[in-house]
Protein backbone atom coordinates (compact mmCIF):
# COMPACT_ATOMS: atom_id res chain seq x y z
CA UNK A 1 0.00 0.00 0.00
CA UNK A 2 2.83 2.39 0.87
CA UNK A 3 4.51 1.59 -2.43
CA UNK A 4 1.28 2.34 -4.30
CA UNK A 5 0.84 5.62 -2.46
CA UNK A 6 4.46 6.52 -3.08
CA UNK A 7 4.10 5.68 -6.77
CA UNK A 8 0.89 7.68 -7.07
CA UNK A 9 2.51 10.63 -5.33
CA UNK A 10 5.54 10.42 -7.61
CA UNK A 11 3.39 10.34 -10.74
CA UNK A 12 1.26 13.24 -9.52
CA UNK A 13 4.37 15.27 -8.73
CA UNK A 14 5.79 14.56 -12.19
CA UNK A 15 2.52 15.50 -13.87
CA UNK A 16 2.26 18.74 -11.89
CA UNK A 17 5.89 19.58 -12.64
CA UNK A 18 5.41 18.92 -16.33
CA UNK A 19 2.25 20.99 -16.34
CA UNK A 20 4.03 23.81 -14.57
CA UNK A 21 6.93 23.69 -17.05
CA UNK A 22 4.48 23.70 -19.93
CA UNK A 23 2.65 26.65 -18.44
CA UNK A 24 5.94 28.53 -17.94
CA UNK A 25 7.06 27.92 -21.50
CA UNK A 26 6.62 31.04 -23.60
CA UNK A 27 5.92 31.17 -27.32
CA UNK A 28 6.95 33.83 -29.81
CA UNK A 29 5.29 34.00 -33.21
CA UNK A 30 7.30 35.38 -36.14
CA UNK A 31 6.44 36.03 -39.78
CA UNK A 32 8.94 36.93 -42.49
CA UNK A 33 10.29 36.13 -45.93
CA UNK A 34 13.65 35.29 -44.33
CA UNK A 35 14.86 31.98 -45.72
CA UNK A 36 13.54 29.01 -43.76
CA UNK A 37 16.75 26.99 -43.45
CA UNK A 38 18.72 29.93 -42.04
CA UNK A 39 15.93 31.03 -39.71
CA UNK A 40 15.77 27.47 -38.36
CA UNK A 41 19.44 27.76 -37.35
CA UNK A 42 18.86 31.17 -35.75
CA UNK A 43 15.89 29.82 -33.80
CA UNK A 44 17.82 26.74 -32.67
CA UNK A 45 20.65 28.92 -31.33
CA UNK A 46 18.15 31.15 -29.56
CA UNK A 47 16.15 28.30 -28.03
CA UNK A 48 19.36 26.69 -26.79
CA UNK A 49 20.17 29.88 -24.88
CA UNK A 50 16.53 30.37 -23.83
CA UNK A 51 15.02 26.90 -23.28
CA UNK A 52 11.87 28.39 -21.75
CA UNK A 53 10.97 30.17 -25.03
CA UNK A 54 9.75 28.48 -28.19
CA UNK A 55 9.65 30.32 -31.48
CA UNK A 56 7.01 29.56 -34.10
CA UNK A 57 8.14 30.83 -37.48
CA UNK A 58 6.01 31.22 -40.61
CA UNK A 59 7.81 31.75 -43.91
CA UNK A 60 6.23 33.54 -46.86
CA UNK A 61 7.53 34.37 -50.29
CA UNK A 62 7.83 38.15 -50.16
CA UNK A 63 5.66 39.13 -53.10
CA UNK A 64 2.73 38.82 -53.11
CA UNK A 65 2.22 36.24 -50.33
CA UNK A 66 3.89 38.05 -47.44
CA UNK A 67 2.47 41.46 -48.33
CA UNK A 68 -1.02 39.95 -48.64
CA UNK A 69 -0.73 38.08 -45.32
CA UNK A 70 0.37 41.22 -43.46
CA UNK A 71 -2.53 43.25 -44.81
CA UNK A 72 -5.07 40.63 -43.82
CA UNK A 73 -3.62 40.11 -40.33
CA UNK A 74 -3.35 43.83 -39.64
CA UNK A 75 -6.97 44.32 -40.65
CA UNK A 76 -8.11 41.58 -38.28
CA UNK A 77 -5.78 42.51 -35.41
CA UNK A 78 -4.05 39.11 -35.63
CA UNK A 79 -0.48 40.05 -36.46
CA UNK A 80 2.19 37.82 -34.89
CA UNK A 81 4.59 39.07 -32.22
CA UNK A 82 7.45 39.89 -34.60
CA UNK A 83 7.28 40.73 -38.30
CA UNK A 84 9.97 41.07 -40.94
CA UNK A 85 10.16 44.58 -42.38
CA UNK A 86 11.91 46.70 -44.92
CA UNK A 87 12.57 50.29 -43.87
CA UNK A 88 10.61 53.22 -45.15
CA UNK A 89 7.39 52.43 -46.96
CA UNK A 90 6.74 48.94 -45.56
CA UNK A 91 7.53 49.96 -41.98
CA UNK A 92 5.40 53.08 -42.32
CA UNK A 93 2.52 51.09 -43.69
CA UNK A 94 2.37 49.17 -40.40
CA UNK A 95 3.69 51.84 -38.02
CA UNK A 96 0.37 52.05 -36.16
CA UNK A 97 0.62 48.30 -35.51
CA UNK A 98 4.18 48.50 -34.16
CA UNK A 99 5.79 49.29 -30.81
CA UNK A 100 8.56 51.88 -30.69
CA UNK A 101 11.70 50.02 -29.60
CA UNK A 102 13.82 52.94 -28.35
CA UNK A 103 13.60 52.17 -24.64
CA UNK A 104 13.95 48.42 -25.04
CA UNK A 105 16.97 48.82 -27.34
CA UNK A 106 18.67 51.30 -25.01
CA UNK A 107 18.20 48.95 -22.08
CA UNK A 108 19.49 46.04 -24.16
CA UNK A 109 22.50 47.64 -25.86
CA UNK A 110 23.19 50.97 -24.17
CA UNK A 111 22.34 54.61 -24.85
CA UNK A 112 24.50 54.77 -27.98
CA UNK A 113 23.10 51.59 -29.54
CA UNK A 114 22.00 53.28 -32.78
CA UNK A 115 25.55 54.53 -33.41
CA UNK A 116 26.64 50.93 -33.77
CA UNK A 117 24.52 50.59 -36.90
CA UNK A 118 25.97 51.48 -40.31
CA UNK A 119 25.08 55.06 -41.38
CA UNK A 120 22.83 54.26 -44.36
CA UNK A 121 20.91 51.76 -42.20
CA UNK A 122 20.52 54.24 -39.36
CA UNK A 123 19.14 56.81 -41.77
CA UNK A 124 16.62 54.31 -43.13
CA UNK A 125 15.34 53.31 -39.69
CA UNK A 126 13.36 56.55 -39.33
CA UNK A 127 12.48 57.04 -42.99
CA UNK A 128 8.92 58.25 -43.37
CA UNK A 129 8.30 58.96 -39.70
CA UNK A 130 5.96 61.90 -39.12
CA UNK A 131 7.69 65.18 -38.36
CA UNK A 132 9.07 65.12 -34.82
CA UNK A 133 8.70 61.34 -34.43
CA UNK A 134 12.17 60.14 -33.40
CA UNK A 135 11.05 56.63 -32.62
CA UNK A 136 12.49 53.50 -34.15
CA UNK A 137 9.90 50.96 -35.29
CA UNK A 138 12.34 48.65 -37.04
CA UNK A 139 15.56 47.02 -35.85
CA UNK A 140 17.80 46.07 -38.78
CA UNK A 141 19.22 42.58 -38.90
CA UNK A 142 21.16 42.64 -42.15
CA UNK A 143 22.49 45.09 -44.71
CA UNK A 144 22.80 44.75 -48.45
CA UNK A 145 24.63 46.31 -51.36
CA UNK A 146 22.98 46.14 -54.79
CA UNK A 147 24.97 45.05 -57.81
CA UNK A 148 24.91 43.07 -61.05
CA UNK A 149 25.90 39.46 -60.51
CA UNK A 150 27.28 37.49 -63.43
CA UNK A 151 28.09 33.87 -64.18
CA UNK A 152 31.87 33.74 -64.52
CA UNK A 153 31.94 30.32 -66.19
CA UNK A 154 29.49 31.33 -68.90
CA UNK A 155 31.39 34.58 -69.44
CA UNK A 156 34.66 32.67 -69.79
CA UNK A 157 33.04 30.15 -72.15
CA UNK A 158 31.79 32.96 -74.41
CA UNK A 159 34.96 35.05 -73.98
CA UNK A 160 33.07 37.93 -72.31
CA UNK A 161 34.67 40.25 -69.76
CA UNK A 162 32.74 41.97 -67.00
CA UNK A 163 31.41 45.06 -68.83
CA UNK A 164 32.76 48.48 -67.93
CA UNK A 165 30.82 50.52 -70.51
CA UNK A 166 27.25 50.43 -71.78
CA UNK A 167 28.41 49.28 -75.20
CA UNK A 168 30.20 46.39 -73.53
CA UNK A 169 27.03 45.60 -71.58
CA UNK A 170 25.02 45.47 -74.82
CA UNK A 171 27.67 43.33 -76.48
CA UNK A 172 27.67 40.95 -73.52
CA UNK A 173 23.87 40.67 -73.63
CA UNK A 174 23.98 39.89 -77.36
CA UNK A 175 26.70 37.28 -76.94
CA UNK A 176 24.73 35.63 -74.15
CA UNK A 177 21.52 35.62 -76.19
CA UNK A 178 23.31 34.25 -79.26
CA UNK A 179 24.86 31.59 -77.03
CA UNK A 180 21.46 30.37 -75.88
CA UNK A 181 21.45 32.05 -72.48
CA UNK A 182 19.14 34.62 -70.91
CA UNK A 183 21.19 37.87 -70.98
CA UNK A 184 20.17 39.77 -67.83
CA UNK A 185 17.14 38.37 -66.06
CA UNK A 186 14.81 41.07 -64.81
CA UNK A 187 11.77 40.20 -62.72
CA UNK A 188 9.95 43.26 -63.97
CA UNK A 189 6.66 42.05 -62.50
CA UNK A 190 8.26 42.80 -59.11
CA UNK A 191 8.34 46.45 -58.13
CA UNK A 192 11.29 45.99 -55.79
CA UNK A 193 13.65 44.77 -58.48
CA UNK A 194 12.62 47.55 -60.85
CA UNK A 195 13.20 50.13 -58.11
CA UNK A 196 16.67 48.69 -57.46
CA UNK A 197 17.76 48.99 -61.09
CA UNK A 198 16.29 52.48 -61.42
CA UNK A 199 18.21 53.59 -58.34
CA UNK A 200 21.42 52.27 -59.88
CA UNK A 201 20.73 54.37 -62.96
CA UNK A 202 19.54 57.54 -61.21
CA UNK A 203 22.59 57.67 -58.95
CA UNK A 204 24.85 57.61 -62.01
CA UNK A 205 23.36 60.92 -63.14
CA UNK A 206 23.31 62.53 -59.69
CA UNK A 207 24.17 60.66 -56.48
CA UNK A 208 21.44 61.06 -53.88
CA UNK A 209 18.96 62.66 -56.28
CA UNK A 210 16.17 60.21 -55.45
CA UNK A 211 16.43 61.13 -51.76
CA UNK A 212 16.15 64.79 -52.71
CA UNK A 213 13.11 64.05 -54.87
CA UNK A 214 11.46 62.13 -52.04
CA UNK A 215 12.03 65.06 -49.70
CA UNK A 216 10.58 67.56 -52.18
CA UNK A 217 13.94 69.26 -52.68
CA UNK A 218 14.22 68.25 -56.35
CA UNK A 219 11.32 67.54 -58.72
CA UNK A 220 10.95 64.02 -60.03
CA UNK A 221 10.79 65.58 -63.47
CA UNK A 222 14.37 66.90 -63.15
CA UNK A 223 16.48 66.24 -66.29
CA UNK A 224 18.70 63.71 -64.49
CA UNK A 225 15.72 61.58 -63.46
CA UNK A 226 14.18 61.82 -66.92
CA UNK A 227 17.49 60.58 -68.37
CA UNK A 228 17.53 57.75 -65.85
CA UNK A 229 14.00 56.76 -66.85
CA UNK A 230 15.00 56.77 -70.53
CA UNK A 231 17.99 54.58 -69.67
CA UNK A 232 15.61 52.21 -67.86
CA UNK A 233 13.56 51.88 -71.07
CA UNK A 234 16.78 51.32 -72.98
CA UNK A 235 17.57 48.18 -70.99
CA UNK A 236 14.45 46.63 -72.51
CA UNK A 237 14.87 48.09 -76.00
CA UNK A 238 18.55 47.19 -76.28
CA UNK A 239 18.00 43.53 -75.45
CA UNK A 240 19.83 43.63 -72.15
CA UNK A 241 16.80 42.33 -70.26
CA UNK A 242 15.21 39.11 -71.47
CA UNK A 243 12.13 38.95 -73.68
CA UNK A 244 8.98 38.77 -71.54
CA UNK A 245 10.63 40.51 -68.57
CA UNK A 246 7.48 42.46 -67.72
CA UNK A 247 5.67 39.26 -66.78
CA UNK A 248 8.59 37.65 -64.96
CA UNK A 249 9.37 37.34 -61.26
CA UNK A 250 12.85 37.53 -59.75
CA UNK A 251 11.93 34.92 -57.13
CA UNK A 252 11.58 32.06 -57.49
CA UNK A 253 11.83 32.00 -61.30
CA UNK A 254 14.81 34.21 -62.02
CA UNK A 255 16.89 33.10 -59.07
CA UNK A 256 16.36 29.43 -59.95
CA UNK A 257 17.34 29.95 -63.57
CA UNK A 258 20.39 31.93 -62.51
CA UNK A 259 21.46 29.19 -60.09
CA UNK A 260 20.96 26.58 -62.80
CA UNK A 261 23.40 28.30 -65.13
CA UNK A 262 20.80 29.48 -67.66
CA UNK A 263 21.22 33.23 -67.04
CA UNK A 264 24.29 35.35 -67.67
CA UNK A 265 23.54 38.33 -65.40
CA UNK A 266 21.01 39.43 -62.81
CA UNK A 267 20.50 42.57 -60.74
CA UNK A 268 20.52 41.29 -57.17
CA UNK A 269 22.65 42.13 -54.18
CA UNK A 270 25.11 40.91 -51.60
CA UNK A 271 22.57 38.37 -50.35
CA UNK A 272 23.32 36.16 -53.38
CA UNK A 273 26.41 34.91 -51.54
CA UNK A 274 24.07 32.75 -49.46
CA UNK A 275 23.56 30.42 -52.43
CA UNK A 276 26.95 28.89 -51.67
CA UNK A 277 25.59 27.60 -48.37
CA UNK A 278 22.48 25.89 -49.69
CA UNK A 279 22.46 22.09 -49.56
CA UNK A 280 22.65 19.99 -52.75
CA UNK A 281 21.42 19.35 -55.31
CA UNK A 282 22.60 22.61 -56.79
CA UNK A 283 24.15 23.65 -60.03
CA UNK A 284 27.92 23.54 -60.46
CA UNK A 285 27.76 27.31 -60.78
CA UNK A 286 26.48 27.88 -57.26
CA UNK A 287 28.63 25.49 -55.26
CA UNK A 288 31.16 27.60 -53.32
CA UNK A 289 30.15 30.66 -55.44
CA UNK A 290 33.25 30.09 -57.59
CA UNK A 291 31.07 30.45 -60.66
CA UNK A 292 29.85 33.94 -59.72
CA UNK A 293 31.16 37.46 -59.28
CA UNK A 294 29.66 40.94 -59.41
CA UNK A 295 30.10 44.39 -60.91
CA UNK A 296 28.25 47.69 -60.67
CA UNK A 297 26.02 48.89 -63.49
CA UNK A 298 28.26 50.44 -66.18
CA UNK A 299 27.64 54.10 -67.10
CA UNK A 300 24.65 54.33 -69.43
CA UNK A 301 25.77 57.73 -70.68
CA UNK A 302 29.27 58.59 -71.78
CA UNK A 303 30.94 60.68 -69.10
CA UNK A 304 28.86 59.22 -66.29
CA UNK A 305 30.50 57.08 -63.60
CA UNK A 306 29.39 53.53 -63.01
CA UNK A 307 26.55 53.16 -60.52
CA UNK A 308 27.74 53.80 -56.98
CA UNK A 309 26.95 51.26 -54.27
CA UNK A 310 23.26 51.44 -53.38
CA UNK A 311 21.83 49.63 -50.40
CA UNK A 312 21.11 49.72 -46.71
CA UNK A 313 18.83 47.52 -44.66
CA UNK A 314 18.15 44.20 -46.32
CA UNK A 315 15.75 43.02 -43.67
CA UNK A 316 14.77 44.21 -40.22
CA UNK A 317 12.15 43.27 -37.67
CA UNK A 318 9.41 45.07 -35.86
CA UNK A 319 7.74 44.34 -32.55
CA UNK A 320 3.98 44.44 -33.07
CA UNK A 321 1.49 45.72 -30.53
CA UNK A 322 0.66 42.08 -29.86
CA UNK A 323 4.36 41.34 -29.37
CA UNK A 324 4.70 44.27 -27.00
CA UNK A 325 2.53 42.32 -24.55
CA UNK A 326 4.89 39.34 -24.75
CA UNK A 327 8.29 40.03 -23.10
CA UNK A 328 9.76 36.97 -24.81
CA UNK A 329 9.14 38.57 -28.20
CA UNK A 330 11.66 41.37 -27.62
CA UNK A 331 14.16 38.86 -26.23
CA UNK A 332 14.00 36.96 -29.51
CA UNK A 333 14.05 40.08 -31.69
CA UNK A 334 17.19 41.35 -29.94
CA UNK A 335 19.05 38.05 -30.40
CA UNK A 336 17.93 37.79 -34.02
CA UNK A 337 19.22 41.23 -34.96
CA UNK A 338 22.32 41.63 -32.79
CA UNK A 339 23.08 38.34 -31.06
CA UNK A 340 23.25 34.59 -31.47
CA UNK A 341 20.48 34.55 -34.07
CA UNK A 342 22.28 37.10 -36.21
CA UNK A 343 25.54 35.14 -36.07
CA UNK A 344 23.84 32.07 -37.51
CA UNK A 345 22.49 34.14 -40.40
CA UNK A 346 25.92 35.61 -41.09
CA UNK A 347 27.50 32.17 -40.99
CA UNK A 348 25.05 31.17 -43.72
CA UNK A 349 26.18 34.25 -45.69
CA UNK A 350 22.58 35.37 -45.75
CA UNK A 351 23.82 38.95 -46.12
CA UNK A 352 25.96 41.63 -44.47
CA UNK A 353 25.50 42.69 -40.83
CA UNK A 354 23.55 45.83 -39.94
CA UNK A 355 25.35 46.32 -36.63
CA UNK A 356 29.09 46.97 -36.80
CA UNK A 357 31.40 44.42 -35.24
CA UNK A 358 29.97 41.22 -36.73
CA UNK A 359 31.36 38.93 -39.41
CA UNK A 360 30.64 35.44 -40.75
CA UNK A 361 32.41 32.45 -39.24
CA UNK A 362 32.95 28.89 -40.39
CA UNK A 363 33.66 27.26 -43.73
CA UNK A 364 33.85 30.07 -46.31
CA UNK A 365 35.90 29.99 -49.50
CA UNK A 366 38.59 32.55 -50.25
CA UNK A 367 36.55 33.81 -53.22
CA UNK A 368 33.49 34.44 -51.04
CA UNK A 369 35.64 36.13 -48.38
CA UNK A 370 37.06 38.43 -51.05
CA UNK A 371 33.60 39.35 -52.35
CA UNK A 372 32.29 39.89 -48.83
CA UNK A 373 35.21 42.20 -48.09
CA UNK A 374 34.42 44.24 -51.22
CA UNK A 375 30.80 44.58 -50.16
CA UNK A 376 31.71 45.58 -46.61
CA UNK A 377 34.12 48.20 -47.96
CA UNK A 378 31.33 49.68 -50.07
CA UNK A 379 28.54 49.50 -47.47
CA UNK A 380 29.53 52.62 -45.44
CA UNK A 381 29.39 54.77 -48.59
CA UNK A 382 26.21 53.27 -50.06
CA UNK A 383 23.45 55.50 -51.39
CA UNK A 384 20.00 54.97 -49.89
CA UNK A 385 17.90 52.23 -51.47
CA UNK A 386 14.58 52.78 -49.72
CA UNK A 387 11.47 54.93 -50.06
CA UNK A 388 9.85 56.75 -47.17
CA UNK A 389 6.28 56.77 -48.47
CA UNK A 390 4.32 53.69 -49.59
CA UNK A 391 2.37 55.88 -52.01
CA UNK A 392 5.54 57.26 -53.62
CA UNK A 393 7.05 53.78 -53.96
CA UNK A 394 3.83 52.54 -55.57
CA UNK A 395 3.73 55.50 -57.94
CA UNK A 396 7.32 54.85 -59.01
CA UNK A 397 6.57 51.15 -59.51
CA UNK A 398 3.66 52.04 -61.80
CA UNK A 399 5.76 54.62 -63.64
CA UNK A 400 8.57 52.13 -64.27
CA UNK A 401 6.12 49.51 -65.51
CA UNK A 402 4.39 51.99 -67.82
CA UNK A 403 7.63 53.26 -69.33
CA UNK A 404 8.97 49.73 -69.79
CA UNK A 405 5.77 48.69 -71.57
CA UNK A 406 5.91 51.76 -73.81
CA UNK A 407 2.51 52.97 -72.65
CA UNK A 408 3.84 56.08 -70.87
CA UNK A 409 6.59 58.55 -71.75
CA UNK A 410 9.30 59.09 -69.14
CA UNK A 411 8.37 62.72 -68.39
CA UNK A 412 4.68 61.92 -67.96
CA UNK A 413 5.45 58.88 -65.81
CA UNK A 414 7.68 60.88 -63.50
CA UNK A 415 5.05 63.60 -63.22
CA UNK A 416 2.76 61.05 -61.56
CA UNK A 417 5.52 60.26 -59.04
CA UNK A 418 5.90 63.97 -58.39
CA UNK A 419 2.17 64.29 -57.72
CA UNK A 420 2.28 61.35 -55.29
CA UNK A 421 5.26 62.90 -53.50
CA UNK A 422 3.56 66.28 -53.12
CA UNK A 423 0.48 64.59 -51.71
CA UNK A 424 2.53 62.50 -49.29
CA UNK A 425 4.53 65.48 -48.07
CA UNK A 426 1.39 67.56 -47.59
CA UNK A 427 -0.11 64.83 -45.42
CA UNK A 428 2.82 64.82 -43.00
From TrEMBL:
Keywords: Cell membrane, Lipoprotein, Membrane, Palmitate, Periplasm, Signal. Residues 1-23 form the signal peptide. InterPro entries: Bact_solute-bd_prot1, SBP. It comes from the Bacteria. GO terms for cellular component: periplasmic space. Pfam families: SBP_bac_1 (PF01547). SUPFAM superfamilies: Periplasmic binding protein-like II (SSF53850). Coiled coil: none annotated. It is found in: Periplasm. Belongs to the bacterial solute-binding protein 1 family. This is Extracellular solute-binding protein family 1.
